[in-house]
Amino acid sequence: MSESISHCMLDLVEEEYTIEDYQSAVPRWCVGCGDHGVLTAVQRLCRDEKLPPEKTVFVSGIGCSSRFPHYLKTYGFHGLHGRALPIAQGVKIKRPDLHVFVIMGDGDCCSIGTAHWIHALRYNMNMTAIVLDNSIYGLTKNQASPTSPLGQVSNTTPKGSFIDPLNPIDVTLGVGSASFVAQAVDWIPDLTHDIIQAAFHHRGFSFIRVLQRCPEFMGHKYDDWVQNPDRMLLLKHENGLKISDELGRIYRNQEVHDPSQRNRAREIAAVSDPIPVGILYQNPDIPCYEDHQVSDIMNTPEIVDTYLQKEFDKYTIKPPGVNA
Amino acid sequence: MSHSASPLASFHLIGDRAGLEVAQAEPGGFRPALFGAYHDLSRLRTDFPVVLVNTPGAAAWLKSLSDIIDDLLQEIAEPGVNGEETRRQVLAQEQTIRQLVAGGQLGSLSHLWSSAQEIVANGNDKLDAVLNTAREAISIDGDVIDFDSQLAARLVTRAWQESESLRSESLQSRIDRLAQKLSDILKVDYLNSAAARQAENLESAMGSKNQSLFDFQAMARVLKTAPAAEALPEMRRNRIKSAIDVLESQRFVSTATSHSKRSDPTFGFSFTDCESAHEAFRQRLPDMAALIRAISIAELEIENHYDESRHDRFFDGFDEHRLGPRDMELFPSYLVCIDEADLQTQEQILQVLRSGLPFKIVAQTGDILGDDSLAGGQLTFGTRGQQLARMALGIDQVFVLQAAASSLYHMKEPVFDGLRINGPALFSVYCGAGYLESAAATESRAFPCFVYNPASGPDQASRFSLAGNPCTDQDWPGHALNFENMEHDYQSEPTAFTLVDFIAHDPKFSERFACIPGTDWGDELIAASDFLSLSGRAIFEKVPYVLLIDTDNLLYRAVVDEKLLDAARRCLAAWHNLQEMGGINNSHAAAAVAEAKTAWEKEYVPPPVQPEQPVAPSAETAAAPAAAAPEPAPALEEAPPPSSDDPWIETIRCTTCNECTQLNDRMFAYDGEKRAYIADPDAGTYRELVEAAETCQVAIIHPGKPRNPDEPGLEELLERAAPFM
Prior knowledge:
By secondary structure, chain A is α/β, with parallel strands linked by helices. Chain A is built from 12 helices and 11 strands. In chain A, strand 7, helix 7 and strand 8 form a beta-alpha-beta unit.
């Protein structure tokens, strides 16, 4: 069949991508910033999944995190503060064939972008959202964010913050149709890569929170956890993450957690010491919004014209000079 | 022996009527006794007339008038006594419609309904109201056709239109989409070009209102400074243009794009003979190849996967020789309706079916019995009609359906299946003089129903079906004949309807029957169906008969000529063959069962009575291995460094944070996964190693022992390096 002719043609041509194919500018993040590790993990994913750069889009808001699209040689959209998700959803509706990734920071997602975050979870459109959570507003130089710990001294909280931080994965699990919730940390890059890979393969809205260091303003927040591997809780399961032997030797605090168990996921998410790493919840059966929306009719100019005229026909236009 | 025996035998064996006192009747005066109940078909509710539904969105493409009326009565008439009046009135309406159709009136259901309503209601307002309610309950409309020689062709054509619309819909939308996307590419290329940024083009793109508000010259000047996108390479543009041309000018299906642009009509796919159909197919092959080629190029171009160095060669050489069966599936199939399939036409039909191409052939035949005399050069009396379909079965990948036209309504599902599959299909139909004769052909095994669908499974059991034949497990269908005997008592005799009975209805063969009135029936007379199972001496002692009735419904036993029994034997053998294919009395299956039975009987030994065994100690032995499961991963300590003196990095845990590489990019480098490793331990100082170890955020750098003993400050550095050893 002709379909198989063009597919045969494609199979004859083996496309191989390298990490360099996805590298654009040299990142201007600080040395030691956790963003580098996530960028590497994402580039490895693109290479391993052979994502054509012209079919991949990274959408971001504002912040250090949101410099992400500049450093990838794919399509990108560096959008407005807090509006990464609606832009990404618009891309997905119009071009459901593209691979959409959304990169936000803790301020972008959990502060100004909170409303979009909740509804993006409800709509469950097929994309991967990564929140680079360093618990501070970094680009704007040291203001407290919704995930900053109690007592954090910053420019906006000179006497230390006195409001409890919110826990993004806890909040996400509270939204009924959230279909993939995971947490990663920037100092275990292998798991970060595996989690992002699982999120990419999940059909639905995949939400990953990456706990990361800001070397400039929050340099030592996670020192204890980095130096004491037992203060990390690795979640593994045959339907979730698999821990390699080498990693397992270092991080011995592991729990077998079935990602389909939402209540247990909530219990795990509520605890911040030990820090849980892994896939907390995954449900592949929740339908995606674009599956209901996309119609078979092609949007030709003629069709658009027809429907527009039909809408206009509902109103009468009074010629100028005629009174009501 | 009574003296009338030898004249009977001599008539039976050699057709000699001398000495026989037979009842004479005009030709056509005698008919099979079992036809007695069916002398007035107009008072029966058969499957016909049928409605070829043409209401868009209707669930069925074919519905019989009886079914429509039954459905609507379910809806509007209350069950029980209350609805009785409505039922009677609507059924009278149905009867009127039947009479109109039988009288030759044609038209759509709604038209006929109105005509019939005028006759039935005849001014009675209440009746009018009831019939109007009934009319509203019918949601479909279409042409009404009755049982006639055109029935099979019209029915299959309607089904074919339905199945083709499904098939061509997908091709249509595919072509539309590809043409649209390709035009989009050209449009974007145009918009990016310098020509589109000229002031005149900008002005015309704006539309007619508010043009005075804009300074298009200024706009054009601004756009001049915008980065110019690369124009499409000439070869690519030409390729896309020619693909669009082919897609828009194709004549296989009518698409939205072709509607507005093209003047040539789409190809026709309905023919009345095989030659022209096959010729048309051959002529269109280049167009088919061109379309497949254009579609493939379009799909590659849209994804921007067309690679000239690889694909040009292939597509340049692409012509009809490269087309394959999967390509055929895309295109509409060819329908050939043949009114009378004589021997020569049958040859053509088989040739076309052998080709494996998607030809759907309706072959109608009016003479299924053939010639009873060898003088015509054929010894096929009785089975001539079945030959075409039986030969088509031999081609194996052909869908074959054989049925009398009277069965076509309740075989509409298999008919549709045959049209839907990809590949050749044969519908061999017998229409006969009327509904009764047609049904009798199936009943008597002269023209049994069968369906062979190669697409419904891998084996004979799933592909072949005898559904639609009465009493498939018997030689001949049996019926009870009720009649009044010589003593004026009612008697019921089980009677088989054989091929001989079927032949009896045809006046052409009336010479082969000698009707004996009831007064002269003797012992030597035996029913033809029983006679066929006789062998040896018995054949010469008995004379076969079939039961016939005349126009006054008087029952006769008619002695039959041996030729007819020859035909019946031939027909029965063919029927047995079909039964085996259908899995009934299948000799292979029977042999396998017998073999299995003998094997089982040989080995079967009744179990001896044994004393109670103590509970086996297997439980204890099972526990032992389970307890010995060792702890996993015996080597739990940190993997020892390659050599305790060399510096090393736990590369797999590197977070690519650039700390060490910024410090010294010759000593610390990234591997293919962008993870750090010691590229050259001598490319820097021990101080740099220790500093890197201290700033590494995951503490995976191990400085090892200093390589240069003369480096200053080693004591302090070793102290700082201690936690990283």
